[in-house]
From TrEMBL:
This is Probable allantoicase. Pathway: Nitrogen metabolism; (S)-allantoin degradation; (S)-ureidoglycolate from allantoate (aminidohydrolase route): step 1/1. It comes from Acrocarpospora pleiomorpha. Its EC number is 3.5.3.4. PANTHER family: ALLANTOICASE, INACTIVE ALLANTOICASE-RELATED.
């Protein structure tokens, strides 16, 4: 698996992504492109339009041209890599595809999107395979357009990248400093046997256990933990620990500590101080704690005792004034328009893997 897949899928439906337009979806709906999870397939399952596919599939083209779908990223940011997955499409996959991207300010209709930039040039595809492409363009994008030549089916489109939030909705406000959509990331975790710890900072509420973080059962005297890196230094006023959907596997207790470190992952020598002392938790319950800590932090560590799961972690607070300035400067740099050819490095095919 390519290194860029460690970044979140900016287009994922559960992260707010949407397929806002497509020129054709005769056989299978466009919305499937950004569904969470791996594509499913059951042979000899036919509907009124033919074999049912968990993907986007267009009709057989009888005229020149190509088919396309436009995806609005739920989490705008810098795209690090693209995965085009043709899983289960064996005799009806497109032989070629390309991907373009654009940046839009505000809430534009599909026909109003302009200044498309090619981030994956026209490349050959195989059937029933995942194709990974690194992207070198350093700009922040809000939309992507998948083009397939001339027609066929794509199961999933994954747009992995670094979240770059709009600072206008962060500065001077109380925000969730642990939110993925605000640029926070999970940088370390003791255990992710059942589900990824990144789920605890995802947008919205978890619909079931699989959309939270759950560890294996411990048979020792230790405990599980994760570390979240804030989008920028800030001060936390309220912590929310949500065990919703975790009826018999919620942690018995939890604690939160914090540190101020320039490193992405704090070193072992980092000095951690308490934000929330070890506190009893209840199953299937949202918990709120007022902290009002005056200390600046860059990372928070959540310890759960001894193991179990958590639906969501929220750390409500404010950014420091310097952090607000730095985020605004970075945003301005990444949204600056580049002249054609100014970006170095073409996308590179990494591998194709069959289902």
């Amino acid at each position: 698996m390519a290194d860029f897949t460690k970044f979140p899928d900016l287009a994922l439906r559960t992260y707010g992504g949407a397929v806002i337009a497509a020129n054709d979806e005769s056989f299978a709906e466009r919305e499937a492109l950004i569904r969470p999870g791996n594509p499913l397939f059951q042979a000899h399952t036919f509907g009124p339009k033919g074999q049912v596919y968990d993907g986007w599939e267009t009709r057989r083209r009888r005229a020149p041209g190509f088919d396309w779908a436009i995806i609005r990223l739920g989490l705008p940011g810098v795209i690090k890599g693209i995965v085009i997955d043709t899983a289960w499409f064996k005799g009806n996959y497109p032989p070629y595809a390309s991907v373009e991207a654009c940046a839009a300010d505000g809430h534009l209709a599909p026909v109003e999107l302009t200044d498309w930039v090619e981030i994956v040039p026209k490349v050959a595809l195989d059937g029933d395979a995942a194709h990974e492409f690194e992207v070198a363009d350093p700009r922040r994008f809000t939309h992507v357009r998948l083009n397939i030549f001339p027609d066929g089916g794509i199961a999933r489109l994954r747009v992995h990248g670094e979240v770059v939030p709009d600072p206008r909705f962060l500065t001077g406000l109380t925000i969730d400093l642990a939110a993925l959509q605000n640029g926070a990331t999970i940088v370390a975790c003791s255990n992710e046997f059942y589900s990824t710890p990144a789920n605890v900072i995802a947008p919205g509420l978890a619909r079931n256990q699989s959309e939270g973080w759950e560890t294996a059962r411990r048979r020792d005297n230790a405990n599980d933990w994760l570390i979240v890196r804030l989008p920028a230094p800030g001060r936390v006023a309220i912590a929310e620990l949500d065990t919703t959907n975790l009826l018999f596997n919620a942690p018995g207790w939890a604690a939160i500590t914090a540190t101020d470190s320039r490193a992405e992952i704090p070193p072992t020598t980092a000095k951690w101080f308490p934000l929330l002392p070890k506190t009893r938790l209840q199953p299937d319950t949202p918990h709120r704690f007022r902290l009002d800590s005056p200390r600046k932090i860059t990372h928070a560590r959540l310890d759960i005792y001894p193991d179990g799961g958590l639906s969501r972690l929220r750390l409500l607070g404010t950014l420091t004034e310097k952090a607000e300035r730095d985020l605004t400067t970075r945003y301005t740099t990444l949204t600056r328009t580049h002249a054609p050819g100014q970006v170095d490095g073409a996308p590179r095919t990494l591998r194709r893997t069959g289902t």
